[in-house]
Amino acid sequence: MGEPRKSVANHGVRCFSKIKMFMVALTGAYLSKSLSGVYMNSMLTQIERQFNIPTSLVGFISGSFEIGNLLLIIFVSYFGTKLHRPTVIGVGCVVMGLGCFLISLPHFLMGRYQYEKTTSLASNLSSNSFLCSGNRTETLMPTPDPAECEKEIKSSMWIYVMIGNLIRGIGETPIMPLGISYIEDFAKSENSPLYIGILETGKIVGPLLGLFLASFCASIYVDTGSVNTDDLTITPTDTRWVGAWWVGFLICAGVNILTSIPFFFFPKTLPKNGLEDNMDVTKSDKEEKYQEKAKKEKRGITKDFLPFMKSLTCNPIYVLFILISVLQLNAFIVSFTFMTKYLEQQYGKSTAEVVFLTGVYSLPPICIGYLTGGLIMKKFKITVKRAAYIAFCLSLTEYLLSFSNFMWTCDDFPVAGLTTSYEGMKQPLYMENNVLDDCNTRCNCLTKTWDPVCGDNGLAYMSACLAGCEKSVGTGINTVFQNCSCIGSSGNSSAVLGLCKKGPDCTIKLQYFLIISVFGCFIYSLAAIPGYMILLRCTKSEEKSLGVGLHAFCIRVFAGIPAPIYFGALIDRTCLYWGSQKCGKPGACRIYDIHNFRRIYLGLQAVLRGSSYLPAFFIVLLVRKLQVPGEADSPEPELAEMKLTEKERECMVVNRSPEVENNRELKTKL
């Protein structure tokens, strides 16, 4: 009676012992981590407005994810191979879910969002004190008590978001290095490019879902359900609008925890792909010897760490590849983190619309490119030499194509007193004390409040009072201001809430920008798989996990952490008008000098990526001179180790432990 139960149990374990089942689970983990990562980046603008903080601080919040990842990446990459890798990955998914929940927590701890405004929400006011009035002697809003105000500012709730993002980074640490090393150890080497292509596809489907989720949440007001949205005086295109960013983080938390469940059922080791039918045979002598060797490795768990590190630093292709990755990832992070803000300011679209268009135009071609690259590598059995040529040529082609984005630019929003004069003439930017004019000096207006209106003449004004408006009709977003002395059009010289929309030619330029991004994303992703295979094939099997981890470590230190911070500070330098916190301190930026913004956003990417092609050229030259035995001479499709130069041999001989040498011999026999 006990024998059938045992066979059923073994059958259940064996189902989870397939490399393809692990691929499905790992793809789900890639999907969930990229879902929450892309959603976080898409909501940075909403977080900036919610907490009324500058872009440089938002960049620091974004970089906190890399800081959390950095804390454990090297140790997880090396020591994780000695532990139960699937279980470690599952724990990481749970930690990511907890981090996402912590990010959403400030919404439940802080009060309702109060945006900067001069207009009133009520419809039955006896006097419109926010309009032009010559007898007003007091400010519109009472001055808060300084001590109470400072106390409120010091309790910055954005710290919860930063800590939650840091915890999310800690949880993501084991997924990539341990997952890839697990596949490399137990899958056929000829299937490895296809498997990595499938994983990269999971990293694209996740962002696609994340962008759609972000677009949906950004279109819903942050306090929906607790406030009457009919009384709002802002729309999703307003720079003060904050969407329901917290909803998506709760969804991401649940998805991350669900994807962790399968990993707790996988075994520590699998038979090499293709040997599943002989599982009982291989588990006799060779499996037992392998397990004994693994126990010996645990006893000397740190003995080979320094020799491996020295070997990697003596590998010129590996070092140059890290340099290329750092430069390219600096440009990519700059582009991805602040793309939403750039498209909003450049083309005058809402966050929800920009995020949706980005997902539709960018992610499908990236997904197709990753799959195509993996299939080509498998179908034609591309060697490392050819992969280096393909990656270099495709990446350079996409880089040259990206320069066309400099042409698709729009003018600044026409705001009287900021970007244009009150007569509608363009003026030098960053001029101070020019928000007042002869048409509104009698109005005694507040000059530190951003509540723009759009006049019949096509000009926007920072408030209805500064437009010289004396009368209002309607409530909420439908309010119309009349008798505006600064608006020189015929009729009643009226204005409506919000900035004036940009012309139809700007929408056409946005379409050109997105079309170029379709071709650029496809070419870039097509080159990604051949480029990544260079990293995997230029390191020996016992160093692979540590090599992937060290590569990720350098990306975090030199790209993931500093890039959003220094670029956020550069963006702040292009701000034309800052919003106001309580106590009069500057908050989030309301409008930017779009021409300087474009030069920094596109120009910095061009400089960073352009400088990466010099080390890439040297990699192509080095790969030409190397002989790869598994590709050139050996008919077997096993993963080949590159022949070492004399200098590299010296690096490897130093302090080489006997356990590693015996392990290599055992792997060769297996």
UniProtKB/TrEMBL annotation:
One of its GO terms (cellular component) is basolateral plasma membrane. Signal peptide: none annotated. It is found in: Cell membrane. It is a multi-pass membrane protein. Keywords: Cell membrane, Disulfide bond, Glycoprotein, Ion transport, Membrane, Transmembrane, Transmembrane helix, Transport. GO terms for molecular function: bile acid transmembrane transporter activity; sodium-independent organic anion transmembrane transporter activity. Its main location: membrane. The keyword Translocase does not apply. Residues 433-488 form the Kazal-like domain. The chain crosses the membrane at residues 21-40, 60-80, 87-109, 157-183, 204-222, 242-266, 317-339, 354-376, 512-536, 548-571, 600-623. PROSITE patterns: KAZAL_2, MFS. Pfam families: Kazal_2 (PF07648), OATP (PF03137). One of its GO terms (biological process) is sodium-independent organic anion transport. It comes from the Eukaryota. Residues 21-627 form the Major facilitator superfamily (MFS) profile domain. PANTHER family: ORGANIC ANION TRANSPORTER (PTHR11388), SOLUTE CARRIER ORGANIC ANION TRANSPORTER FAMILY MEMBER 1A2 (PTHR11388:SF16). Belongs to the organo anion transporter (TC 2.A.60) family. This is Solute carrier organic anion transporter family member. The lineage of its organism: Eukaryota, Metazoa, Chordata, Craniata, Vertebrata.
